[in-house]
Design a protein that fits this description.
Residues 16-317 form the Beta-lactamase-related domain. It holds the Pfam family Beta-lactamase. The chain is built from ten helices and twelve strands. By secondary structure, it is α+β, with helices and mostly antiparallel strands. It has a single domain, classed as Beta-lactamase. The longest helix is centred in the last third of the chain and has 20 residues, at 313-332. It is globular and about 55 Å long.
Length: 344
């Protein structure tokens, strides 16, 4: 398996730390390289924490499935059912929890008013000064357009987290830790910026990523080992503490044109093979994760360099994930029987 991912560090030359973790069946491999660069150079390990960016949304999707499995929410619930009265006066009943998790809610990519505040910190911490009060103010202005059509939305992912927190009566970070992170044993994963790699953008160090008003859309940090454990929970036979929820997140629910959308996970198929995947990027880190239930394959790649227009790390990681799936499928394929020509 190592030969399929050996090229990944070269795809992110600005990074000083890279970690890759993969599983096929019962075999597990973790590859790391570089130094963390925070608090003095330290070697990267499987427990080194990277910013996940939008990969956080898949955790939010798993939390949604877990709460639906408990009967605390329904995927068809209008989001406003789990928000304070008057919090979203312009959102109709068609903006449901499921549509938020499939980017079909019709919400814009960013909350109203965020972009103008983000521009001064665009290359460092664009979300830092947009807090919970700002999010609430944006939500009061928000309107949904063309609900039912795919339109990627950080706003929608963040709003789903707000709704789940409202349904449980607990802050999102605490709720996620209680329902997802601790049950899966993800000890390196949380929303705090402490004890993590120093991120880089075009070779320059970046401050820790902050997104106080939209944690469910992109606040998590995690390690290669934790991500591998997380992805393994999404593979059959789904016997872990979130087994039913993990199976539910992989069900296709909407179309994005060239691929299907599950609960935040993107899904593509090739012949009888499938791959669910998601990427994430902050100003200082890039993350990619994928899994294939049909081949019992899981794959995660992390780098402490933020994505740029010329970055190929995510594309190369995506190709490596498919290569792992194809290799696993070829090993398990049964040979076709040789026809008995004498019987014809």
């Amino acid at each position: 398996m190592k030969d399929l991912v050996a090229h990944l560090p070269a795809a992110v030359p600005d990074a000083t730390a890279v970690a890759v973790a993969l599983r096929q069946g019962d075999r597990e491999v973790v590859l790391v390289g570089g130094t963390t660069g925070r608090g003095g150079p330290r070697p990267v390990t499987g427990h080194t924490r990277f910013e996940l960016g939008s990969l956080t949304k898949t955790f939010t999707g798993l939390l949604l499935a877990e709460m639906a499995d408990r009967g605390e929410v329904r995927l068809t619930d209008p989001v406003r059912r789990h928000l304070p009265v008057g919090a979203a006066p312009h959102l109709g009943r068609d903006v449901t929890l499921e549509r938020l998790a499939t980017h079909t809610s019709g919400l814009a990519r960013l909350p109203p008013g965020l972009l103008s505040r983000a521009v001064p910190r665009w290359r460092t911490n664009p979300y830092r000064d947009f807090d919970a009060d700002d999010f609430a103010a944006a939500l009061r202005r928000a309107r949904s357009r063309a609900s039912g059509r795919y339109r990627y939305s950080n706003f929608g992912g963040a709003l789903l987290g707000e709704a789940l927190a409202g349904a449980a009566g607990r802050p999102f970070a605490d709720l996620l830790a209680e329902r997802v992170l601790r049950p899966l044993g993800l000890t390196d994963t949380d929303c705090t910026p402490s004890a993590q790699v120093t991120g880089h953008l075009r070779g320059r160090p970046r401050p820790p990523w902050e997104i106080p008003g939209m944690p469910a859309a992109g606040a998590l940090r995690s390690s290669a080992l934790d991500l591998l454990r997380y992805l393994t929970a999404h593979l059959p036979p789904f016997t872990g503490p979130l087994g039913r929820a993990a199976a539910e997140v992989a069900r296709p629910r909407a179309s994005a044109g060239d691929h299907d959308v599950c609960l935040f996970w993107d899904l593509r198929r090739r012949a009888d093979r499938e791959l669910l995947f998601h990427s994430g990027g902050t100003r200082g880190c890039t993350a990619f994760a994928a899994f294939s239930p049909t081949t019992s394959t899981a794959f995660a790649a992390l780098a402490n360099a933020g994505p740029t227009p010329g970055s190929t790390f995510v594309q190369r990681a995506y190709e490596a994930a498919w290569a792992l799936v194809d290799r696993a499928a070829s090993r398990t394929a049964r040979p076709r029987p040789v026809p008995d020509l004498r019987a014809t």
